[in-house]
Amino acid sequence: MNTKNLLIGISALTLLPGVAFAQDADAGGVSNTGKIEDIIVTAERRETRLQDTPISITAISGQALADRAVTNLIDITQFTPNLTSSSGTVSSNDGNYFIRGIGQQDAFSNVEPGVGVYVDGVYLGRTAGAALDLIDLDRVEVLRGPQGTLFGRNTIGGAVSLTTRKPADSFGGRALLRVGERSRIDGSLSVDAPIAPGLLTSKVSLLTKNIHGAFRNIGPAGGRAGDVRVLAGRAAFHFTPTSNLTIDTTVDATRRRGTAQCSFTTGFNPASAGVPAGANNRVSPNRSLCYSSIVDNDARLNTWGVATTVALDLGAFTLKGISGYRRLRQYAPVDNDGSDFDLYDLITRKRQSQLSQELQAFGKAFGDRLTWLVGGYYFNEKIHELQRLTFAVAGPNYFRFRDFAPHTKSYAVFGQASFDITEQLSVTGGLRWTRDDKSMDVFNQDQRGGVFTTVVDTLAKRHWDAVTPKIGVEWKAQEDWLLYASYSEGFRGGGFNARVRAANQLISFDPEKAKVIEAGSKVDMFDQRLRFNLAAFHTSYRSIQILALQNGFFSNRNAGDARLYGFEAELTAKPAEGLLVNGGVGYTHSRYRNLLPGIGLTTSSRLPYAPEWTVTMGGQYSRDLPGLGQGTVRIDYAYKSRQNIFSPTSLEPGYGLVNARGSLKINDRLEFAVYGRNIFNKHYAVYRSVDLSGGAGSLGISNEFQGERRELGVEASIRF
């Protein structure tokens, strides 16, 4: 054993007592040679080996997700250190992602995501619909920290980048059927169909998902809460008119139906003005029964989009354009008080359209010692959100109608370059300029006893600019050992408070800024049978945008500053033939500093959805079974420590989930599998609101939304 292997091996072992094996960026598993695969990622907007990419990144292939029985993007948090997510309260279609404590707490359209979600390079502007159903996926990459000098849109906390499979040059495909508990019936079909081999190829993918919710609604609508019915499709075309020009176009659409999420009432305070006598008799008797007083309790989401990527190789450099257009419509009812009283019900109707255009030029120079990329980005998003709010605190027979229309135009110029000083040492520098032009038209009305009163009818406009740099240094200590350090800044645009009760409350909140120092190591050892990656970070997080509850009303405000620091450790090992062990541990320390008064936070408060510890462990064993085929068994464990799941009083104790899957593959074509998610049926909350003070304006309600229950099922798939 050489000195490098000894030192890194000792460093890895210091983590093992509390972690077992930590998960590496695991995109595929093991190659045919018995070594851990080289993983190709596009985190730097060009293809590089994961182990040569100086960013804290976890990459998981579509096959690895299938081996874990993952069908929705939300579930990748179970395999990724320092990544958490929540569908929030508005709709189970929403995807609110948090990386190292930075994300989006509020589902309203006046706030931007703190973590950018990209599909084939196209940014998704809303958390609505971002709980993506995974179909024909090549890989998912989770990039931690600001990525503004490489990605088109602002990504202050990080990015979740999905890459779909490209059409193949020959005819083929795959069909899958999944049947499970709660009347689960899923099906998917993917077909590669070359139109003109060598010139134009195509791929068509279809998906349907159907499952009943785990909770019974004893309200007027009846049935189950959390039903899901999905029909989705994608068509992809790969056109190569010349040897140096490629054109990739995709068209996708999703129709998602189901019933609203279930709000469990955990307590009422009769001293609150809006809580009627006897309300405590409506406290949810258990976490399987819930009550919704909304009759039209069906949640609906329609979304579609088209994207085109054009790449022209000019020899000395390459030009690339990424164009995207998307539309979204959503209807989302939620009975927040979870009772037969109309205390705090919200019905949301949302329409969104976005147009994005990104232009890049990248290449190498000075004998390939300089690698560079420059780009420009334009983003135009229009939203119309209409809400009906029942709010008992404001009096009987009261409704509030919010009608607001945010409009964003964003422009950016960015660039990054890396220069090899020696064969081992390189430096990186990048810079981004961003300008956000925003407006919001608000028309809010109150209704009392059938009489409407206009309370707000106004338009607000403002713009913000930011310059965010990145610098870094990378040292290739040996061929398979990379050390790096970087400093980067991130920016999330400001906006306007949509929860206004008077024209003078339509005030803006400022952009967030993050300054991040990161240092890391990536190493392969023992003939590439052990991979260990480590990254440590320190973040100065300023002008944090929060959703503050004051006098019974929420508002968007800048809270102050926070300091976050921690690390991610990831490891993959192949200790024996057919055995793959991986896992990960993440630590995030998050505390507020320099807080503004009157926002309900203290310096001891934790940031939302930022557990101190996230741990994931997994093992997979495969072997040939004579006369049958190849059998594979996999088991995964994911743990999150205590975390704030909305407000400082909304603490959820730590919990762990266990998933497993066993499969039999026959002739590399036919596969049968059994799976289990949340095998031990752990009950845990993903959102909790506690406002039992009973003071003036108090909601007088505590409620929570529960996570997914256990699901067992079987799968059958065939390749052709």
Write up what this structure looks like.
- Residues 253-679 form the TonB-dependent receptor-like beta-barrel domain.
- Strand 38 (643-644) and strand 39 (651-652) form a beta hairpin.
- The radius of gyration is 25 Å and the shape is globular.
- It has a 22-stranded antiparallel barrel. Strands 3-9-10-7-8 form a five-stranded mixed beta sheet. A three-stranded antiparallel beta sheet has the order 4-5-6, with no helix packed on it.
- The protein has a single domain (38-717), classed as TonB-dependent receptor, beta-barrel domain (Maltoporin, Chain A, Beta Barrel), CATH 2.40.170.20.
- The chain is mainly β.
- Residues 1-30 have low confidence and may be disordered.
- It contains two helices and 44 strands.
- The relative contact order is 0.14.
Assign a percent range to the helix content.
Answer: under 10%
Query: Would you identify the regions where 5 or more consecutive residues have pLDDT less than 50?
Result: 1-30
Stated plainly, the CATH topology is called: Maltoporin, Chain A
Provide the CATH architecture.
Answer: Beta Barrel
Straight-line N-to-C gap: 46 Å
